[in-house]
Amino acid sequence: MVKKTSSCHSKYNRARPAANLIRNNRLYFDNRINSERLRDLFNQYVYVHPDKEIMNEYPYPDELDSLGYAFIEIQKVIRL
């Protein structure tokens, strides 16, 4: 199901919770995911910065942003 949602936080704030869990080995990705695509996703973390001026210098981290939205929705169902 696709759900329309409005943006309520910055990409930095949306990415931070998932990034913290990944960094602390509490969130994993299935090893069947294409490694190149997964590397591209993880590389988008370098674009995420609390300073909007710096964020504007990099390509949009849209896959990372999608993960952030998905993570927000998952947390509504289960506690991570």
Could you characterize what this model shows?
Helix content is 52%, strand content 0%. The chain has helices at 11-23, 35-43, 52-55, 62-77. The chain contains four helices and no strands. The chain is globular, with a radius of gyration of 13 Å.
The total strand number stands at 0
Query: Which consecutive residue ranges, at least 5 long each, have pLDDT under 50?
Result: none
| Gyration radius, in Å | 13 Å
**Secondary-structure content class:** mainly alpha
Q: What overall geometry do the principal axes of the alpha carbons give?
A: globular
Q: Tell me, rounded to a whole number, the average pLDDT.
A: 80
Q: What percentage of residues falls in helices of 4 or more residues?
A: 40-55%
Tally of contiguous helical segments:
4
Features of this protein?
mainly alpha; 4 helices; globular; 80 residues
In short:
The chain is an all-alpha fold. It has helices spanning 11-23, 35-43, 52-55, 62-77. The mean pLDDT is 80.
What is the strand and helix layout of this fold?
Blueprint: H1 11-23, H2 35-43, H3 52-55, H4 62-77
Helix pairs in contact: 1-4
